Inverse folding.
């Protein structure tokens, strides 16, 4: 638990399921006021809100498309109207799907880039505007992936979006460091979330993935949420512009295990 988070206001995009839901719940345990954004899954967002409240936090759910300025402005307005302030903004919403690159349509490329990368830009910009206007220290966390670093054939649009998040995060971190605004990313590896449900339900695919992880297990969403809580808290006060990998060692070149190579 990070006591400085208590009663702070946080926006979590894509909070109806998966990592976003786990992060919102963790912030509930930290007694925070949580704006839970969802795109289509109102029931998932509502369930997350109930869990946040049961854990000791406050919560509202807000429908919004993070790839639009209107959507992001709605989120910020609702945070300010309901809770009167904004302290932390988590750009978590994201999507992935698989296409051979020579068959990837422009429409699909744009859909993934719009949500995963443009959504991060819009959320960051809106949070920055508020922090700058109020001259307050702020905190932004972007959901990247091990694939900001590891190439991922047939997921070129997804990998491009995550690589973009990495350099966007570093650049903005440098730009706003002197204003006491910190911005960091989290790089999850293979985590037990709905995005991976079909893949990990197949025992062979599950084994293939586990073989790529030095810790030899899939991660839990709460392990990612713990990283978000730490990055949001003042315990990480001298940390900005990093991607904190939460991946069981997936980015450590596991093929070299045992001295191979
Ligand atoms: C993806 C998962 C994948 C993991 C490791 C994540 O960014 O969302 O689907 O299992 O990377 O490849």
């Amino acid at each position: 638990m990070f006591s400085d988070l208590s009663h702070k206001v946080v926006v979590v995009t894509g909070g109806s399921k998966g990592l976003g839901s786990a992060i919102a719940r963790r912030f509930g345990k930290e007694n925070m006021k949580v704006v839970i954004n969802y795109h289509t899954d109102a029931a998932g967002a509502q369930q997350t809100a109930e869990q946040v409240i049961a854990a000791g936090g406050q919560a509202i759910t807000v429908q919004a498309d993070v790839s639009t300025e209107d959507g992001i402005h709605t989120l910020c307005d609702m945070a300010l109207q309901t809770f009167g302030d904004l302290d932390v903004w988590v750009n978590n919403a994201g999507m992935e799907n698989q296409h051979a690159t020579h068959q990837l349509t422009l429409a699909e490329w744009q859909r993934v880039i719009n949500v995963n990368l443009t959504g991060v830009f819009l959320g960051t910009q809106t949070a920055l505007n508020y922090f700058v206007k109020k001259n307050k220290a702020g905190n932004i966390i972007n959901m990247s992936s091990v694939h900001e670093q590891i190439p991922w054939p047939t997921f070129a649009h997804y990998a491009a979006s995550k690589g973009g998040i990495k350099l966007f995060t570093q650049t903005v971190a440098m730009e706003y460091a002197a204003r006491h605004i910190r911005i960091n990313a989290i790089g999850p590896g293979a985590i037990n979330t709905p995005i991976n449900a079909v893949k990990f339900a197949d025992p062979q695919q599950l084994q293939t993935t586990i073989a790529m992880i030095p810790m030899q297990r899939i991660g839990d969403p709460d392990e990612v949420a713990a990283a978000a809580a730490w990055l949001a808290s003042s315990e990480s006060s001298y940390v900005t512009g990093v991607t904190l990998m939460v991946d069981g060692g997936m980015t450590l070149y596991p093929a070299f295990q045992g001295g191979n190579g």
In short: Strands lie at 9-12, 33-38, 58-63, 88-91, 138-143, 181-188, 243-246. The longest strand covers residues 181-188. The chain has a mean pLDDT of 98.
